[in-house]
Design a protein that fits this description.
InterPro entries: NTF2, NTF2-like_dom_sf, NTF2_dom, Nuclear_transport_factor_2_euk. By secondary structure, the protein is α+β, with helices and mostly antiparallel strands. Helix content is about 20%, strand content about 40%. It is built from 3 helices and 8 strands; from the N terminus they run ββααββαββββ. It has a single domain, classed as Nuclear Transport Factor 2, Chain: A (Roll), CATH 3.10.450.
Length: about 160
């Protein structure tokens, strides 16, 4: 499958290899991102995925860059993400292309809460919540060049998370 995009007078064609490399980059990114998010060192490590120009929207609340993310997660209890699925779309126009990555899954904030069958806790802490998260990954020009066939290195240019359940 080949995808084409016309930007100005230039035409960019994505090949199966481009899509395969982009999907591998997105898979590697999502695994690393959520492992980092759920780690005890997330306050120090997770902001490294972002740049000062990165925009975040967390359940409708706008934040900016690593400092905005840090202000959000420093007040948050520990998390455990279970990624159910992800999809990746390379955005033609640059080489390597930016990537639009959508993720769905569940997240528990705090320790899982025991409760009797049929009863719901009034607090969301400890409850699994369904989320949808969309990332725009931008090639990181400051990173060391990738080898041919190796996924490019990316930073998060935009991040939008919404709880859907």
């Amino acid at each position: 499958m080949t995808s084409t995009s016309s930007i100005g007078s230039a035409v960019t064609v994505l090949t199966r290899d481009d899509i395969s490399i982009a999907t591998r980059a997105a898979d590697k990114f999502t695994q690393l991102y959520y492992t980092t998010y759920d780690s005890p060192s997330r306050l120090a490590d997770l902001p490294n995925f972002y740049r000062p120009v990165s925009s975040l929207t967390w359940n409708g609340k706008p934040l900016q860059g690593p400092d905005g993310l840090r202000s959000l997660i420093e007040k948050m209890p520990p998390t455990k993400h279970e990624m159910q699925s992800f999809d990746c779309h390379p955005i033609p126009g640059a080489s390597p292309p930016s990537l639009l990555v959508t993720v769905s899954g569940t997240v528990v904030h705090g320790k899982p809460a025991p409760h009797a069958p049929g009863q719901r806790s009034k607090s969301v802490e400890g409850q699994a919540r369904v989320y949808s998260q969309t990332f725009m990954l931008v090639p990181d020009s400051a990173a060391a060049p990738s080898q041919p066939g190796e996924p490019a290195k990316y930073y998060i240019g935009a991040d939008a998370l919404r709880f859907v359940g």
